[in-house]
Amino acid sequence: MQHQTRAIRSYGSVHAASSLAGARGAQLTQMLFDGLVDALVALRGHILHQSTQAKSVQVNKVQRIVIGLQSSLDFERGGEVARNLDELYRYVIRRLVHVHAYNDLAALDEITELMREIRDAWRTLTPAAGAPVAAPARPS
Q1: pTM score, two decimals?
Q2: How far apart are CA 38 and CA 138, in angstroms?
């Protein structure tokens, strides 16, 4: 529960936090990845429009989400996968600092694509909220 609470706080939005409060495990992670990709897309727009203050706010939001995802990793149960994700999140934070300093859209696109790939992988593992989980097919 403590991991989920930290992840919720990292998202940074009252509305989103109230939606996330009812989510569990994989659903919470999926929602955070959705928010992360949206935040990265918005960051790109702020860079393109040269909105320095909005860009800074958005970079902070992205960092909070990534740190929330990172802090929710369970290294005991997650083993090598958790360690690999931890390294990836560290890399994303480093690249994000570069993006912020140099308005590097290619680096931002790289981060966005990496996070989309992970988000899409989570989607294949996480049933939609409220959707029933398919039962295994019965042999005929």
Answers
A1: 0.75
A2: 40
Say yes or no to pLDDT of 87 above 90.
yes
User: Phi and psi dihedrals of 72, rounded to 5?
Assistant: -90, 0
Pick the CATH number of 2-125 from 2.30.30.30, 1.10.10.10, 1.20.120.340, 3.40.30.10: 1.20.120.340
The CA-atom distances, in angstroms, between 107 and each of 5, 23, 39, 87, 103 are 30, 31, 15, 17, 9
Distance (Å, whole) CA 17 – CA 28: 10
Distance, CA of 33 to CA of 21 (rounded, Å): 15
What is the rounded radius of gyration, in angstroms, for the C-alpha atoms of the chain? 16
> What DSSP assignment string belongs to 23-75?
--HHHHHHHHHHHHHHHHHHHHHHHHTT-HHHHHHHHHHHHHHHHHHHHT--H
